[in-house]
Amino acid sequence: MARRKTRKVSSPPRKGTRLRARSTASRAIKAGLAAVVAGVVGLLRAVTPSGESMRGFIAAAWYSRNARRCAGLLGGVVVLCLLSWVMLHNLRGNEQYRVDPGRIELSAAPAWAKGDLAQRLKADIEEDLRADLADLPEGSAFDTELMATITERIERSPWVRRVVRVERRFPTGPEGHSRLLPLLELRTPAVAVETVACFVLVDGDGVVLPLELKRDALEFALFNEKLVRPLRVVKGVEGSSPASGGTWSNEQVAAALSMERVIRKAELDRALPIEAIELIGIPQQPDARGRVHYQPEGGVILIPDQQRMPGFRVMWGRPPVHASTLELSPNDKLETLKNHMRGMESVSDTRIDLRKRG
């Protein structure tokens, strides 16, 4: 009996749910990307002009007189910039246009001094400035970084308030060389603060100048004779002064400088030559809230020339920097002082009190 052959039929494998989900997501992403690409291509086609449009635009621009003028001007600027760059590059390497900061030309004559004092101060200031620049290497006169370094070094000096500019002087012949001439604004002493051992000169910004005088009346009088405008002495400042070049951050010094500005602006010395400013009852520093608490009867006292007006005192009160509504304004005080001066027959041992209203 023949054996019957049987065929095995295998069922197709089933895909899992996760595989079907991944296939569906992949098809969706591809369809989305295709749509985005198609949209970008359509947008580019819409905004990009055709070749014919571009040719028309170029032709219109070429035949436009204003367009040709603008193109010519732009081309001229580009050519000029290129020529300038080439010339500057060549000049930087030329020995005639190299400068030595240690041999810089200076003009540091203080305008507030005269005679031999002005010459001595000029020589001292210029010597110190050249010493500060001596370690700088040679460089090109067109080097902006070198100019900035020279300016920064010079402004470190306690005598220099600021560098106005650094002028370049170029050679006029084949044998010449370039030079630098900084234009300086020097500090001017405003008052002489009396300390235990000496007089300390302070400018209008409160910066201590590198010049001290012995606390001697005769020496100070001789020094004042060599000044264009004599200095006033400030009495009653407490604490030690900072080093030269530092700012004396003291409410007493601020009060004295404030009073000095009022005297100079009002030209009070013409009618009443003030010899000294005395400070009484003024704290050195403000409190935590920035308030300056004067002691009772504290303020500024103006002392005129005692040889001409012995015993004369002006009780000014609070200076403008610490003005109070309980006192008259500086202008009203000046007017009151002038009225008192007009009605006075004698100035000896006279006290004028400007601290109270009425």
Protein model, in words:
The chain is elongated. The chain has helices spanning 17-47, 51-62, 65-92, 115-133, 144-154, 217-225, 251-266, 330-342; strands at residues 98-99, 139-140, 160-169, 179-186, 189-194, 198-203, 208-214, 232-235, 274-280, 299-304, 313-317, 351-353. Strand 8 (232-235), helix 7 and strand 9 form a beta-alpha-beta unit. Helix content is 39%, strand content 18%. The protein has 8 helices and 12 strands. The chain has 3 domains: 61-92; 98-186, no CATH class; 189-353, no CATH class. It has 358 residues and is of the alpha/beta class. The model has no long low-confidence stretch (mean pLDDT 82).
Q: What would you call the shape? A: elongated
Count up the helices: 8
Largest sheet: 8 strands, mixed
The averaged pLDDT comes out at 82
Secondary structure: helix percent: 25-40%
What's the helix and strand layout?
Layout: H1 17-47, H2 51-62, H3 65-92, E1 98-99, H4 115-133, E2 139-140, H5 144-154, E3 160-169, E4 179-186, E5 189-194, E6 198-203, E7 208-214, H6 217-225, E8 232-235, H7 251-266, E9 274-280, E10 299-304, E11 313-317, H8 330-342, E12 351-353
Please give a handful of descriptors for the protein shown.
single chain; 358 residues; alpha/beta; 3 domains; 8-stranded mixed sheet; elongated
Short description:
The protein has about 350 residues and is α/β, with parallel strands linked by helices. It has eight helices and twelve strands. The termini are far apart.
